[in-house]
Amino acid sequence: ALVAAGPILDALLRDPVYRLHLAARGDRQEVMLGYSDSNKESGFLAAAWILHQAQSALAEVARRQGVELTLFHGRGGAIGRGGGPSNRAILGSAPGSVDGRLKLTEQGEVVTANYADPVIARRHLEQLTGAVLIASTDEHDAAARAALEAGAPILAELSATARAAYRALVHDDPGFAGFFREITPISELSDLRLGSRPAARGRQGGAAAPSIDSLRAIPWTFAWSQARINLPGWYGLGGALETYRVAHGDTGLAEIARLYQSWPFLASVLDNAEMILAKADMGVARRYASLTAGPESAARWERIEAEYHRTVGLLLRVTGRERLLDGVPVLQRSIALRNPYVDSLSELQVRLLARLRAMPADDPDRARVLRLVQLTVNGVAAGLQNTG
């Protein structure tokens, strides 16, 4: 639907009956953009690019049809569900897609982080308002159009490669769903309230374990964050950058670095990836990988770990930094201070998961161990932030 968003809106606005309805509302049209399922379907980079193209197409249709368009961004808290700094995302919006109007969701721990303290709440709202005003100026619009024209062929190539790599791992491997259930606490999360809907579409109590396709985006993203991998927020990016470097040489990578400095959209995307990579921890994640068994599972883990290190190395080359989050030292220090406490909870969670999964279903101690697992889930989520 995102790929066809422009033509769909165009067909709707050409309907005379609907235009009468719209005229009664002052020729104002709202369109909601969903971030979660596009990421689970295509991966982080491809989803970001598809959404950016959809914004452009919708804005152009609205302009041509003489309609005031408001885009409603259905973002989650996690990077894998469209999260990240909202003001940066607004500044990275497609040219002509803001025009003084914006609507967005703020969910989960984001509500507390942004609004629990009145001073922080005021600052956050000022940042959102300022970003909308800047993104609506002719100067910003012109610069964004120039960057989009220069960067579109590069992003198209990168996103296609990243999507293929992501789908090869997640969707094309018939054994990946089982691997996912072993390496994360997704099965043990089923009794926790994650969002307002069931963890999987169409699943009834006692039914078989859900497939990747039927699993909803919130538990999908949440489970990866619990395992300290954060796969939905970065997987495929490193392979895409490496493939582009091989095809175009170091000058191609240098061109991406220049675009990163001049294109707010690309800067927002890569900075979000940098943040979620910094919150991942392959050392701790290896402990979760120990919950799996067999050569196929080992190969899947090696593939994920290799892509992580590839992504970090190439992202640092593009951003020109020596370490992740060197440009945001406050967040860098915050993660470094929190992680030792979260690491202990993660280690406890791994041991409890191994114990729980080895227990017979009728073991009288099973409920107590499951409760302990769920307590570690709450602790890890509180420590990591950006979880759902």
Description of the molecule:
The structure is a single chain. The chain is mainly α. The protein has a domain at 5-137. It contains 16 helices and three strands. It has helices spanning 5-13, 16-24, 36-42, 44-65, 86-91, 109-115, 118-135, 138-170, 176-183, 217-226, 237-262, 264-279, 282-289, 295-319, 329-358, 366-384; strands at residues 28-34, 68-74, 103-104. Strands 1-2-3 form a three-stranded parallel sheet. α5 links the parallel β2 (68-74) and β3 (103-104). α1 runs parallel beside α4 (44-65). The longest helix is centred in the middle third of the chain and has 33 residues, at 138-170. It starts with a helix and ends with a helix. 41% of the residues are buried.
Rg, rounded, reads 22 Å
Q: Between the first and last Cα atoms, what is the distance in angstroms?
A: 24 Å
Number of strands: 3
Largest sheet: 3 strands, parallel
Principal-axis shape equals globular
Instruction: Provide the helix percentage.
Output: 55-70%
Supply the key terms:
16 helices, 388 residues, three-stranded parallel sheet
Put the structure in a nutshell.
It is built from 16 helices and 3 strands. By secondary structure, it is mainly alpha-helical.
Reconstruct the topology from this structure:
Blueprint: H1 5-13, H2 16-24, E1 28-34, H3 36-42, H4 44-65, E2 68-74, H5 86-91, E3 103-104, H6 109-115, H7 118-135, H8 138-170, H9 176-183, H10 217-226, H11 237-262, H12 264-279, H13 282-289, H14 295-319, H15 329-358, H16 366-384
Parallel strand pairs: 1-2, 2-3
